[in-house]
Amino acid sequence: MKMHSGVDAEPGLIHSVVCTAAHEADVAHAHELLHGQETQVHSDSGYTGLDRRDEIASAQDEGRLRKDIDWRIAMKRGQLKAMPKGPAKALCEWFKRRKAQVRAVVEHPFHIIKNLFGYRKVSYRGIAKNEARAKTQAALVNLYISRRRLMTKGVRASTA
């Protein structure tokens, strides 16, 4: 099973979760992760070609997605390795690092689920049951990430 998540870059909170069988391509369900207000989409190389998918084009035509989305999808590792050494490769590597810094925010909820909650393997109960469990964990992750902001607002309110 794979758990795909849509995460807002600024607060780092999960807004959508989709679970699929492990053999399905990541890009096939990416349109389900977008909420429609995105101005930028950062993703790894598993989502290559996302901006050219029929589901994305139809959602943009229907007005469910913005048409001016800036797609920042990582380059496949083999493409970067195949480039000849020089300033063009150095520039691509620099851009790759900048994209990875933003995507690291998306990976933080997975760190919490796996390392703090101890959920590293699914016990196969079917996709529907595992998806329900994953969505519950995503909600708990949002509470865990928000706790610091919630506690500091409570402290400010009581001291004012």
Characteristic key phrases:
two-stranded antiparallel ribbon, 160 residues, alpha+beta, two-stranded parallel sheet, 13% strand
List the helices and strands and how they pair.
Layout: E1 2-7, E2 14-20, E3 40-43, H1 54-62, E4 70-73, H2 77-82, H3 87-116, H4 127-159
Model description:
This protein is α+β, with helices and mostly antiparallel strands and 160 residues long. It has one domain. The protein has helices spanning 54-62, 77-82, 87-116, 127-159, and strands spanning 2-7, 14-20, 40-43, 70-73. Strands 1-2 form a two-stranded antiparallel sheet. A hairpin with a 6-residue loop joins strand 1 (2-7) and strand 2. The termini are far apart.
Termini separation: 48 Å
**Count of individual beta strands:** 4
Helix count, DSSP H or I runs of 4 or more residues: 4
Rounded mean pLDDT score: 87
Q: What coarse outline follows from CA principal-axis ratios?
A: globular
The fraction of residues assigned to DSSP E strands is 5-15%
Q: H/E order of the elements? A: EEEHEHHH
Spatial sequence of strands, sheet with the most strands: 1-2
Can you summarize the main beta sheet? 2 strands, antiparallel
Structural class label: alpha+beta
Number of domains: 1
